[in-house]
Specification:
two-stranded antiparallel ribbon; 4 helices; single chain; elongated; 120 residues; alpha+beta
Length: 120
């Protein structure tokens, strides 16, 4: 594995469309001790265009990225439901490397600052 999520400020959680399945909603509902219907209503909404219709996680404003997943803690920069996170999050970054982490690592070396975060 050529990335370390523990050193990233949560780039993947800033993706605008984090799709969830019925299985993901069941897992999140169980995690929060609420009904699937309540989880669907509180945590997601339907994103719909001419070509796409999918249920995605809600976001909230963020100081680093414009917005991040509502389930992301903006202080600790970590997922608050990691054990119950959606399948798409479990699979990210779909390989053995993360392009953002490579970019971040380069920028931190270039600026000689271990915690450097590039601004938008």
């Amino acid at each position: 594995m050529s990335f370390d999520c523990g050193k990233c400020p949560g780039y993947c959680c800033s993706h605008g469309r984090i799709a969830v399945t019925d299985n993901d909603l069941r897992r999140l509902a169980l995690h929060f001790g609420i009904s699937e219907r309540a989880a669907r209503r509180r945590l997601t909404y339907v994103y719909k265009t001419k070509d796409v219709e999918e249920r995605i996680l809600r976001h909230h404003k963020d100081s680093i990225y414009q917005s991040v997943c509502r389930l992301f803690d903006r202080e600790t920069r970590r997922c608050t439901v990691y054990a119950a996170r959606p399948n798409v999050c479990r699979k990210y970054p779909y390989g053995n490397s993360c392009g953002y982490y490579s970019f971040l690592k380069f920028e931190r070396t270039f600026h000689d600052e271990e915690d450097f975060i590039p601004s938008a």
